[in-house]
């Protein structure tokens, strides 16, 4: 029997259906009862869909979301000294978020453009992973100790930005899995711009399924003005660890970057399950 391969048109139709099913306006993720908001956001070097460089709009979108943990992509300049593009002091004052510390360039915010910000907790470990491919890509891994109703627990967060070529994404997924196998097992979130619109067997993300389970339903986040492709993802290595994954779709988010942020909820008290 001939197996049909996922096409761009079919993926776009699936994305349109998921877009109609999500709530209109701002993200449906709300805090309360100890539930954390996590998010992933490709800030496109702070250049909006209007072609204007405006880091302040990115901070305003992050304030709209109100995350406890957020992974940013393209938050540094691409080449040269890879200088950070955001005002981290303003971000801290207006959102309470602090960057996970990294080793490397003194002017950059993160690692290969990836920045992890968190509101509360203690960073126990940080690991910077270089990913293979033709482009400079990387993953930033942080283990953060959190306080829940049942006591302290640790959450591993991986912020990644995968490549434009499918063969590179496959290799990059293998590197991430190899890294996890070499480290102690614990609740883990994988967040970022994975640059993969395909669904099913054709998707490079199927490489991640042995650890992160079946791919979640696609939620369109790109392009921001009329999102039809699910390039951004939030995944977990434990069933039920994340809920209410949705896109943060507001008038400001549609103009601040070419991607919309993706958000989800995490109950810290389930981290020990």
UniProtKB/TrEMBL annotation:
Keywords: Endonuclease, Hydrolase, Nuclease. InterPro entries: Endo/exonu/phosph_ase_sf (IPR036691), Endo/exonuclease/phosphatase (IPR005135), GPI-anchor_lipid_remodeler (IPR051916). This is Endonuclease. The keyword Nuclease applies. Coiled coil: none annotated. PANTHER family: CALCOFLUOR WHITE HYPERSENSITIVE PROTEIN PRECURSOR (PTHR14859), ENDONUCLEASE_EXONUCLEASE_PHOSPHATASE DOMAIN-CONTAINING PROTEIN (PTHR14859:SF15). The keyword Plastid does not apply. Pfam families: Exo_endo_phos. Residues 39-259 form the Endonuclease/exonuclease/phosphatase domain. GO terms for molecular function: endonuclease activity. It comes from Rhizobium wuzhouense. It comes from the Bacteria.
